[in-house]
Amino acid sequence: xxxxxxxxxxxxxxxxxxxxxxxxxxxxxxxxxxxxxxxxxxxxxxxxxxxxxxxxxxxxxxxxxxxxxxxxxxxxxxxxxxxxxxxxxxxxxxxxxxxxxxxxxxxxxxxxxxxxxxxxxxxxxxxxxxxxxxxxxxxxxxxxxxxxxxxxxxxxxxxxxxxxxxxxxxxxxxxxxxxxxxxxxxxxxxxxxxxxxxxxxxxxxxxxxxxxxxxxxxxxxxxxxxxxxxxxxxxxxxxxxxxxxxxxxxxxxxxxxxxxxxxxxxxxxxxxxx
Length: 274
What we know:
Elements: E1 2-8, E2 17-23, H1 30-40, E3 44-49, E4 57-63, E5 66-68, H2 72-84, E6 92-97, E7 100-109, E8 112-118, E9 123-124, H3 131-138, E10 151-154, E11 159-163, H4 167-171, H5 177-187, E12 191-197, E13 202-205, E14 208-209, H6 221-234, E15 241-246, E16 254-260, E17 265-269, E18 271-273
Helix pairs in contact: 3-5
């Protein structure tokens, strides 16, 4: 077993979302894996050999409280460590995850590359979500929401997408976390993703996950992907590529790129190894 430290989606090489990566982990038990996440108090990407002949590796994802089905920033971290340690001999390949098979592409050369992760076909829940419940959990007046509906959207895990009116309100959010987790459980969400639209194809967001062992994420690829679907299919705004800024309220600025493919989308980013 080898553990490497990375940060993913850093903005101008600062901030990003920290993600330890464990290589050569085939001898680890479930308890071993979750204990690593508990000790580090971070989401951890774990690389195993895959029993699926169509996949290069199997990736597992652990937060301090449980195993997760899929995580984009940890996927990017795992691929980066594999690439930099010369475990990969191709730039297009698949990996096995609890959520299914992921298609991966490495863009660039060995010294400077980004990782492109294809997302599943989107699901937009048709359930009615009460904005008053969301506002209470976020600890803001409901009049800080735009007229657009709150939606649960998934391209791997359901996120609750919430449009607010201004960045100041977004950055000043101090949620009632017990209420937030209760609402997440009630509506089947893995986290709230409040956002604000800035100029064309630029968005600001924060992610409050559902009781994972930490209160906020500085960069969340699956949520940014869900936001891309919300922009395209709920707000009806077409785009080829959009940029999501996250983590600024945590002093860990992050930048996530979402590329539309007209069915679902791709999330693109890089990891810094330190």
